[in-house]
Structure formats: C-alpha cells, structure tokens
Amino acid sequence: MDSARRESASRESAPTAPLDRIRIGSAPDSWGVWFAQDPLQVPWPRFLDEVSQAGYEWIELGPYGYLPTDPGRLREETARRGLRVSAGTVFTALHRGPAVWEETWAQVSQVAALAQEMGAGHLVVIPSFWRDDRTAEPIEDRELTAAQWRDLATGMERLGHEVRERYGLRIAVHPHADTHIDTEEHVRRFLDATDPRLVNLCLDTGHYAYCGGDSVRLIETYGERIGYLHLKQVDPAVLAEVTARGTPFGPAVRQGVMCEPPLGVPALEPVLQAAQRLDADLFAIVEQDMYPCPPDRPLPIARRTRAFLRSCGA
C-alpha cells in the first residue's frame, strides 16, 4: 500500500466530529451515466433504486433526459425511494460570446425549470470541453484569449443573474478536466474576474486534483466562493501516466484514473473538515467518473463510499 493509501486508510479509522453542515448525496455519474441516452448505461429506474439502497438521500438530475423530465413523474419516482434533488447540471460555452446566449439559455432554462420543480437550489455549470468527450479530438484551442476570458466572465455573471431571478437557483461553476477552467491558475483567474454575488464554484475534488490543484487550499483561500462540492478521488499512479502521455479525459477515465475512496487523492477528510469550517450549509455529492462500466459495479462501490463518508463524520 502506498503512502497516500496508508494515510487515507488511517484517517478512515480515526474518530471524527460530525460534519453537520455537509449534506451527502450521489449522482448518475457514479453509475457510469454521462449521456441522456446510451446503451452502455444502466436504466434510470435501476439508478434510483440502487442510489437509495446505497444509503443516499440526495441526488442530482444528471444529463437532462436521463431521468424523467416530467416533474410530476420524477417527484413520484424519487419520493417513493426517499430521494430528493439537490441540483441540475448544464454545459455551456459562454467564452464564445453573446452569439451563443440564446442557444445556451434554451438548454439552461429547461434544466433549471426541472430543478426548481424538484425543490433544488443549485445549478451546476460545466464549461464546454476543448476536446470532444467521446472522440477526444480537439475542438478548439486549449487556452482562451483575453477577449474570450472577458466573454466567459460576463456570460457567467449574466447566467447567474438570470437563473437566480427566473428560477431562484444559484449557479455553481464546475472546474473540469479538458475545459478552460481547470488548473489553479485558471480557477483563480475566473474567480477574480466574476462577481461573487452572482457566481459561485462547484469544487470537484477529483477534477481539481487531476489538474494539479489543492482543494483544501482553494477552500481556505476562496471559501466564500465555494457553493457546492463534488467528492471524487484520482488514482495517483494512473494520473501520472495519463499526464505524462497527454491522454484526454475520456480515455483516462476508461483507464481508471478516477478511483473509489479512500484509495486515491486528495484525502477527503481534510476537504470535508475545511468545508465544515466555512460555517455554511453545503451539498457534497459523490461522483466517480467511470463511463462505461459493468452494470453490477456501481452499487457495491456506492455502499462502501457511503460507509467511508460516515466514518469521516458526514
């Protein structure tokens, strides 16, 4: 067992204070769901059954159209399994300027409306990939120009305002591998360029580690901007290999770069403790990117992960 795994295992057994400001959930992503429709994914009723069986109360909507989009039906399906919805998720390309606003809003509004109907308070916003998530082919330059950074910042502020005014939701922008908001430098630049009254951050611990970031330091430095958490770990050995080879994110996932807690990095206990010190109510949604995966794989992992997080006080 390497040092990172020994450290995580020792923390797992140590008693911890209750994390009473953290609400734990999971998401379709932890069941290998990346797309609204895909024959490699488990059917949505199985996801709902198993996420409840694993001991979670909160879920995200996942890709729009994977779960039922009729609010009445979705309320019935979630309620009878003891589940509630914390957030919806959208992808945006606002760095491309005002020309993409109408197309962006058409997508955002349908997801935000469903999230609102389900009683959620958040909309997770993921920047568009600069490499295609299916083919791994480059779509555009990896680095934004100064003008594109301005368009990204002003577009996200507009989005934050409109989503709050029309649907009562707060946006949480998700730094993500193979997007333009990924590294510590890019995250700092984005946060410094946007209004904290309109734009918060969804800190995904796995993606931030994948891109070289320190989650605890980000929470301690920009705590007032952390509005939402995704809990995830990376396998450091696989990460070193894919980084050295420049492997795109999709193939890296298929190589197992995202792994089951507490076997990877970052250690989640310090992250949760740092979030608890913010004295704010936060969702912490478990995600383990593993598309595609065998249909019987997710449930045992989800159960073990929920038990691990309970041992951390969450």
From TrEMBL:
Residues 1-21 are annotated as: Disordered. This is Sugar phosphate isomerase/epimerase. Gene3D superfamilies: Divalent-metal-dependent TIM barrel enzymes. It comes from the Bacteria. InterPro entries: IolE/XylAMocC-like (IPR050312), Xyl_isomerase-like_sf (IPR036237), Xyl_isomerase-like_TIM-brl (IPR013022). GO terms for molecular function: isomerase activity. Residues 48-311 form the Xylose isomerase-like TIM barrel domain. Residues 1-10 have a biased composition (Basic and acidic residues). Keywords: Isomerase.
